[in-house]
Design a protein that fits this description.
Largest sheet: none
CATH superfamily: GTPase Activation - p120gap, domain 1
Pfam family, one: RasGAP
GO molecular function: GTPase activator activity
Structural class: mainly alpha
Number of strands: 0
Protein name: RASA2 protein
Number of domains: 1
Helix content: 55-70%
Number of helices: 12
CATH architecture: Orthogonal Bundle
Radius of gyration: 19 Å
Keywords: GTPase activation
Order of helices and strands: HHHHHHHHHHHH
Distance between the termini: 29 Å
CATH class: Mainly Alpha
């Protein structure tokens, strides 16, 4: 309440709490306060509160290497596709418009990249940093306690961070997460935006009993997402969310790097 712009306080606060190994109980405390003002389960952790911004900053710091090993190879391929992929996906890499892409090549082009990104994400749980898993575990159980009659809120509480605020944001802005050295060109940006939107939607389906295609105003989007209606996609998301919000000890992945909290 002291800071007009909470962002000014969030980053140093998160770094301080990480240094003293107090971030998880702090996030749990402010998240519980956040949930008291949340009236509907489908809006859990969707705003820019102190709790959500703390988790955002924590993921940027702690999850940097996790993003790199999970997404960088795919992001590099989008920016510099191989000759075979280039011939197949040229309409997507050089799109005229969003509608044009999905109408002229609704299956092969976008589906290829979305499949690849989705597959890398759902099989990456073993690489997820333990601290992120501990935070997700707390958020999941707090949400379930706040809305005991909604069996899916425990998944949406986690997916709202790991899919919407972490993977989807990194896909659409890879340079801000050090996955690319520079801002992508216009054509690549369009491609990454489409992939990001698809990943957000697929991640949200982990908290639903069935896909709600009627929520899409555009007919071409409905047609595209019908190809992802198979139960295996929902089950994959559910299993991934279970894994990354578990406190069970994980086998060493050999992918961790030290987190540097001091700069300058």
């Amino acid at each position: 309440e002291v800071c007009r712009d909470k962002y000014d306080a969030v980053l140093p606060l998160v770094r301080l709490l990480l240094h003293h190994h107090k971030l998880v109980p702090f996030v749990a405390a402010v998240a519980e306060l956040d949930l008291k003002d949340t009236q509907e389960a489908n809006t859990v952790f969707r705003g820019n509160s102190l709790a959500t911004r703390c988790v955002d900053e924590m993921m940027k710091i702690v999850g940097k290497h996790y993003l790199k090993v999970t997404l960088k190879p795919v992001i590099d391929e989008v920016g510099y596709p191989t000759e075979t992929v280039f011939r197949t996906l040229s309409p997507l890499v050089y799109p005229v418009s969003l509608i044009g892409i999905l109408l002229t090549a609704p299956s092969e082009n976008l589906r290829y990249y979305v499949d690849k990104v989705f597959r890398e994400i759902v099989r990456s749980s073993i690489s997820c940093p333990t601290l992120m898993c501990d935070v997700f575990y707390s958020l999941r159980h707090l949400a379930a306690k706040r809305f005991p009659n909604d069996p899916h809120v425990q998944y949406s509480a986690v997916s709202s961070f790991v899919f919407l605020r972490f993977f989807a944001v990194a896909v659409v802005s890879p340079h801000t997460f050090h996955l690319r050295p520079h801002h992508p060109d216009a054509q690549t940006c369009r491609t990454l935006t489409l992939i990001s939107k698809a990943i957000q939607t697929l991640g949200s389906w982990g908290s639903l009993t069935k896909s709600k295609l009627s929520s899409f105003k555009e007919t071409f989007m409905c047609e595209f997402f019908k190809t992802f209606q198979e139960g295996k996609f929902t089950e994959s998301v559910k299993k991934f969310l279970d894994d990354v919000s578990s406190t069970e000890s994980k086998e060493p992945s050999g992918l961790s790097e030290p987190v540097h909290l001091k700069e300058g």
